[in-house]
Amino acid sequence: MSEYFTQLRATLDGVIARLAAKGIEPRHLAFRGEGAVSARRPTVPTDARSEFLANRAMGDWAERSLSDALVQALPEWMVVQYGDTGRIAAGHPDFKTSYLAGIEETRRHGKRPDLLLFPASIPVEADLSGRTHAETETLVRQAAAAVEVCSSKFEALTYMAVRRQQREAGGATGRESPSFTVKVEDLVVVHRWLEKHGVPQSYFQVFFDSVFAINFLDIFTVIASGTGYVIEAPAKSQEKATIMIPITRGVQVGAATELPSFAAEHRVTALGRHDAYVVPRGGGFVLDAVKTRQVLRPR
């Protein structure tokens, strides 16, 4: 995959120039090598409320559903959990230590993708999320591909069909499709991981009715081109600058076989506050194996 990384490196000057012109701070454009040690102590969250718990439940569901679909579509590869699966919530006595350790590992080695795909011939355990970088680095470099998973509360195909009907009826519409959403601050740490491990990585957006995917090489290429995306600071991203790329710039690689149901759950904090949230359950997807491979391992 040397050609892949040659192309990725070739996008960097354009990415930096385009984002700098849009006012992105230099610290978010410091590609290549380890990140600098912050002069400020990181702010550690002190509590996890209903919205955080609901978003985490959505993310967990998306990862499980996509993992199951990848296993069925790509039997020549083994799907391995790699990203953080820790469930120590903010406010727990052990949370601060775990949170700060995660920040330091990301600064040095980059942001772990959620899933890794290994050739089935390589002996590897199904979950590497609890292992340190030192314990896994040599093994991880043998992976065939990496996947970052993002969930959405939309049905993408329904969204696009309604927008098309509105446009044909002459009505004013907003965006014609949902977007891949990539935080600007994640670009450097994703690139750091790619640079260090040499494993191509893709971004899979899991909707309730479909799955769309785009390789990070294409994300960097789109940004460097200066067109085909917007930068926003949505509330759901804690007002952090976020790159919005229409999902039509990627590929639909999957469709839902069944929609999930939803169940209410709640957590009681140490101080006795009840946080209620909704959790998706069940559902499933079928992936187009050819299209999925093409996104994961572009030529």
**Major sheet characteristics:** 7 strands, mixed
Choose one word for the global shape.
globular
CATH architecture: 3-Layer(aba) Sandwich
N-to-C span: 8 Å
Mean pLDDT: 88
Binned, the helix content reads: 25-40%
CATH topology heading: Trna Endonuclease, Chain: A, domain 1
Give the number of DSSP strands: 12
Descriptive notes:
Helices cover 37% and strands 23% of the residues. The radius of gyration is 19 Å and the shape is globular. Strands 1-2-3-5-6-9-12 form a seven-stranded mixed beta sheet. A three-stranded antiparallel beta sheet has the order 4-8-7. Strands 10-11 form a two-stranded antiparallel ribbon. The model has no long low-confidence stretch (mean pLDDT 88). With 299 residues, the protein is of the alpha+beta class.
Entry keywords:
single chain, 299 residues, alpha+beta, Trna Endonuclease, Chain: A, domain 1, seven-stranded mixed sheet, three-stranded antiparallel sheet, 8 helices, 23% strand
